[in-house]
């Protein structure tokens, strides 16, 4: 952030006039640049669609730009209300300003990491891979905390199933081996993986698995949660289909229904706290707010991990951020 604070006039200059974020051509064409990294307006948020409503005359454009900027700051103030002390910024909707807090706490660094993970288009392919890898690990920790049951004779096990290079779970090797192991955990009766190519190292739409195991119980169908983790705003809605029962019918893997979750780093909410587009959400979604609620008083290790990323937001100049990004990419 420049000076740690940004006001409405600066946002208008950067977004609409300097061409650092959106260049409006002929009143209704948009060309997106990847340089918008200095405020808390997620480039992927549906709010950006308001830009298409700019008028054609200069007066209309100026008025509409002012209205859009005010709307953005009102929206940020609603985030502050929803997140409370977890929010690392001070949003003043009356003054239309956003200021980063002077004494950032570990939970604030986690927020800044999730903000970065919501804007993958800003980063090189190398950094995107690292960001998404870390996000899957964070989701893994969140899911473990959500389903922590450990009683005498009953245990809930959570594992990373996907291609995460830090994967130390029971699911290793190619897709066939992973599905066989999952079949063992859930006592699948008719699992068929013979037709799978040994070179297939994918995850078939499964990133995380939680299964409740009971001592001396070999009956099929234990409680099961299958989750997807997605950072891309454009892709996560489509990924809601990736772990549907139809995807696994050919394997005869699941004898009963299971719970499906979708983890996203976005704060996918309107000013009233509801989803931006309700009709597009048909899974249980763990967005930025829910992830942070789970982790607020829990896993300090994740806060240290998030702290490694926060300089990409906090460093004052673009050159410094580029140098630090190169360090992370290594």
Note down, in words, how this protein is organized.
With 330 residues, this protein is of the alpha+beta class. The chain has a six-stranded mixed β-sheet. The protein has helices at 8-17, 58-83, 106-117, 125-146, 175-185, 233-239, 288-295, 300-307, 311-314, 318-329; strands at 5-7, 22-25, 29-32, 89-92, 97-100, 150-151, 154-160, 208-214, 224-229, 259-263, 284-286. The chain is built from ten helices and eleven strands. Helix 1 (8-17) crosses helix 2 and helix 3 crosses helix 8 (300-307). Residues 20-45 have low confidence and may be disordered. It folds into two domains: 1-102, no CATH class; 125-307, no CATH class.
Task: List the keywords.
330 residues; three-stranded antiparallel beta sheet; six-stranded mixed beta sheet; alpha+beta; 11 strands; 2 domains; single chain; 15% strand; 36% helix
Number of helices: 10
Secondary-structure element series: EHEEHEEHHEEHEEHEEHHHH
The total domain count is 2
Give the strand line-up of the largest sheet. 6-7-8-9-10-11
Mean of residue pLDDT values: 81
Instruction: Report the β-strand fraction as a percent range.
Output: 5-15%
Rounded to the nearest angstrom, the distance between the terminal CA atoms is: 24 Å
Structural class: alpha+beta
Calculate Rg over CA atoms.
22 Å
Estimated helix fraction? 25-40%
Biggest pleated-sheet summary: 6 strands, mixed
CA-based shape = elongated
- Overall strand count: 11
| Low-pLDDT residue intervals, each spanning 5 or more residues | 20-45
């Amino acid at each position: 952030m420049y000076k740690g604070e940004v006001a409405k006039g600066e946002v208008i200059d950067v977004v609409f006039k300097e061409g650092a974020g959106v260049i409006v051509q002929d009143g209704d064409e948009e060309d997106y640049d990847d340089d918008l990294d200095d405020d808390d307006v997620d480039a992927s948020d549906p709010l950006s669609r308001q830009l298409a409503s700019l008028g054609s005359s200069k007066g209309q454009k100026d008025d509409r730009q002012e209205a859009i900027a005010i709307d953005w700051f009102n929206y940020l103030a609603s985030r502050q209300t929803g997140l409370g002390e977890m929010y690392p910024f001070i949003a003043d909707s009356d003054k239309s300003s956003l200021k980063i807090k002077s004494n950032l706490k570990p939970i604030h660094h986690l927020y800044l990491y999730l903000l970065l993970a919501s804007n993958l288009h800003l980063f090189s392919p190398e950094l995107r891979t690292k960001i998404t890898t870390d996000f899957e690990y964070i989701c893994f920790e969140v899911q473990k905390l959500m389903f922590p049951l450990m009683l005498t004779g009953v245990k809930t096990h959570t594992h990373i199933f996907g291609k995460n290079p830090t994967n130390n779970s029971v699911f290793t090797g190619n897709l066939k081996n992973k599905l066989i192991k999952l079949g063992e955990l859930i006592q699948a009766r008719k699992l068929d993986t013979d037709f799978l190519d040994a070179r297939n190292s994918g995850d078939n739409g499964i990133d995380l698995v939680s299964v409740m195991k009971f001592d001396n119980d070999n009956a099929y169908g234990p409680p099961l949660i299958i989750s997807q983790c997605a950072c891309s705003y454009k892709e996560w809605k489509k990924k809601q289909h990736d772990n549907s029962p139809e995807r696994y019918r050919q394997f005869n893997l699941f004898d009963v229904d299971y719970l499906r979750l979708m983890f996203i780093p976005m704060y996918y909410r309107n000013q009233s706290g509801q989803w931006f587009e309700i009709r597009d959400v048909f899974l249980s979604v763990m967005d930025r707010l829910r992830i942070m609620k789970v982790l607020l008083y829990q896993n300090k290790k994740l806060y240290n991990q998030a702290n490694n990323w926060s300089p990409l937001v906090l460093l004052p100049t673009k050159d410094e951020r580029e140098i630090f990004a190169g360090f992370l990419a290594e």
